[in-house]
Structure formats: C-alpha cells, structure tokens
Amino acid sequence: MNVVQLVCAVALGLAAVSPAVASEEIIKKARCVACHAVDQKRVGPAYKDVAAKYKGQGDAVAVLSAKIRSGGTGNWGQIPMPPHPADKISDADLKAAVEWILKL
What we know:
Layout: H1 3-29, H2 47-54, H3 60-70, H4 91-102
Helix pairs in contact: 1-4, 3-4
C-alpha cells in the first residue's frame, strides 16, 4: 500500500467514526447526560432502552424529536423531562443525536 492509499484509508476510517463521535458530543454539549446514560437508567431511561422501545418505528426520529422539544412525563415514569428548545439544541443537532441513540 502506498502513502496515498494509506492516507485515503485512514481518512475514510475517520469519516466513518465521526458522525457517532459528533452525535455523542452533541448529547454531552446539550447536557442530556445529566439525566441519561447509554446503558443505565439515571433520572431518565438509558439510551439503549429508548432505542429498543422505538426499534422498527419508521417515525421514531420525528416522534422522539418532538418529545424532546416539548418535554413531558408518563412515557418512562412520572419524573418529567423538561423541554429542550432550539436555543438549547439546534434542529440539526437534535436529529443527529436522536439518530445516534436509535442506532444503539
């Protein structure tokens, strides 16, 4: 493998990792980790539990995005989730974060 091929292979590998890392960083920046974790329940459900609940639902990204935007209670217990308006997390970041969660 020559240097050009090696550089291209590394770049493609990094590109494949970047969306997941970026989405996880979005979640941290939006402070979702204050109440949620990937594989354990905290104040709110684990992301893996959310992914399992919505697996196979074609409208899952839209449904979860709307729930996150408006907040609420009753889906995972009686502890309310506060609303997360666009000034806290942009529409694009919210979509990327939800898509990342659903892939867990």
